Fold:
Amino acid sequence: MNRRHFNLCLAGACVAAGWPGLVLAQGAPVEGRDYARLAQPVPMPASGKVEVVEFFGYWCPHCNSFEPAIDAWSRKLPADVSFRRVPVAFSAPQEPYAKIYLALEAMGQLDAVHRKVFAAIHVQRQRLEKEAEITAFMTANGIDAAKFMDTYKGFTVASKFKQARQLADAYKIDGVPTIGVHGRYFTSPSLAGGADQALRVADYLIQRAKQS
Structure:
């Protein structure tokens, strides 16, 4: 079991069991327990906003479980906080799932199809790795399959996939879901002790980023 596989399994165990030793206490979150600070900060755009990133994978069951909570949380963030998802692929079989997200994003179809991709994989037990599987899914969900595959195979998705990989590497991501905050911190359900705890830690880190 490699390190990434181990961390993914560990994340699942923490989310499912809610390890009491890792549950966020009433006081401020603790660095090294509830979140981590990057030794080398990631450069951020000069937008005047705090950038929050969810690193995720459609292939990841823990990301599927986390999706409703982080989606609801992200919709309530203040105007001076920007939120985006970045798909992660640790292996070649996971790359199509990252590119599906990026192609849907490029086509403006995320609101319509994002949750349906999770459901197809984790509820309906579909695989979306081969072109025939992907086109069948898109057609079934009202997406022009030919246009989708052109986007999926195009320069924009290839460029965004490279950028996503570079950002995941810069954040030292080795398990998902993980929340990165303004290129300085990250937390996750496994670090904080559960989904709700991770979002509370993220709120705390956003305030720290604003203050600094």
In short: The domain at 3-11+49-211 is CATH 3.40.30.10 (Glutaredoxin).
